[in-house]
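User: Hey, my collaborator sent me this sequence without any context and asked if I could get a structure. I don't really work with proteins. Can you help?
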Amino acid sequence: MDRLARFMDVTISDPAAFGGGSAHGHVRTRVSTVAYGYLGVVDEYEDADHDVTWCLLTLSLPGLAPNLTVDHRKVFGLPGVPLRETLVATGDPVFDAEYGVIADDPTVVTRILTPALRALLVDRPVQRLSLSGAAMVLRTFDGAALTDDVVVNLNAMVEGILSSTPSFVTPRSGRDVGMHGKPLAPGLCAENEDPPEEEPHKPGFAGRFGGRSRHRV
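Assistant: No problem. I've predicted the 3D structure and written it out in structure-token form, which is a compact way to encode the shape of the chain:
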């Protein structure tokens, strides 16, 4: 993995920036990645007070997505996790028993969280899936360290989401491309492509797998 050392040793006290679950997080390391042909980064965070680590994948989308956050119910009540009264039910009892959803526009919930995506999240749980602007974020459960396997699993989760879900991305051009029930097309970046020069780190969502008997990210 190409470790981007200049992003290490940053402490963030905004839970929204690292996927919630702790009052603050310390950035231990960051790696660049490519998932489904789109550029992304994976950060490893640490909460030294509770001796836990987790990973956050932030993927750059080719357009704008609605604001939507899906949190696993096991983290309800922790810092940065939305209040129960703000949740939008999907009508899927299995999924709703596992996750809570918030969205600026409740009508986008069923369009994005299709049966296929709900089944994927139940089968391969994550602590948080978040869409906002031009970014998708996945946060693992606590206990995940930044390893090659974790990056591979997060990237596979991205591919599962974007390849099987009708596109929720609105192109910046304003043209209605890739919509009407079609999944977002793969990006043009190759796995061995050098990432572009990055701007100084700005806190943002990001996440990774962790804990439970089922396959978890």
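In plain terms: Residues 88 and 107 are 10 Å apart (CA to CA). You can pass these tokens on to your collaborator as they are.
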